[in-house]
Design brief:
The protein has 14 helices and nine strands. A hairpin with a 4-residue loop joins strand 7 and strand 8. By secondary structure, it is of the alpha+beta class. The longest helix is centred in the middle third of the chain and has 26 residues. The strands form two sheets. Strands 2-1-5-4-3 form a five-stranded antiparallel sheet, sandwiched between helices. Strands 6-7-8-9 form a four-stranded antiparallel sheet. The N and C termini lie far apart (about 90 Å). The radius of gyration is 26 Å and the shape is elongated.
Length: about 325
Amino acid sequence: MGGRIISTLETHVDKVIATVHSGQAAARSRLAASWRRSLVSHGLDPATRHIQDYHDASEVAERQDRLGRVMRVAAPTLDRLFELVGNSGCGIVLTDADGIVLDHRFTDADHDAFYGWGLGLGSDWSEASEGTNGIGTCLAENRPVTIHRSEHFMARNTEMSCIDAPIYGADGQIVAALDVSSARADQTQAINGLIAEMVQQTARKIEADNFRDRFKSERIIVADQDDSTAMMLLAVDRDDIVVGATRGARKVYGMSLEGAVTPIPARDLFGADTGPTGFENAERAAVVRALVRADHNVSKAARNLGISRATLYRRMRSLGLGD
């Protein structure tokens, strides 16, 4: 039995090295490109058996503090995901943008096994540390990925399946990676596909909750979307100025993908700036809101606006609002 395991690991190592040294493989395959980064750029050996050392508790605590709001809003969502997949032998891991594990969910029965795989708090799952893996490759390539068993770079990780999605902060930058890992021998690619859908939805839920918390004083607009993997939210202030946008919304509306949003009137962004303009446009919007709030009772709307009924009627006619 031991001889067969060693032979399998040696075969994996040979395959990785041969693929990396193939002239065309990295150009044709994202997986081969990641293997090449792991071997050539990061200088890793796929035969390494030693699991990396963990960051100490003080550094983990410091990183958790830096990710504070994301971790706080993510916690209940991670709990719900764990309820769905935890009893099937899967563990849930949340890392920061460097691939350092800062939170996880394991059953008591699986806890030791996952720590044995190196998934404990403070472990480093960047590509620079572990080579091709779900967490590190997700962060390196800025996209959801599934690394199934022998697709891992390290031979010692080939018993695992890792399914990941990036989480973007309110400024459009990657702040974390969400990972579901399983060491079940019977986990198929089809099951991985189902879990991958849940992981992406969970990552977008965390992203949306974090964005809403960041802009809790602003009005949040949900943009139309056909892509279920992108969360498209806009934050609009009391003056109808867009002051924030998720990464998905930034792509759709041609904004800078990262950093502070350049303030822009919402009507300009939506291409809806037709009809009255400037102060007239703002006045019309204020009058319409007052009428709607007063259930179209002109006298009540005028009182709420602090003007006379006759003045309101004059302004309505000049703004083309009729009777």
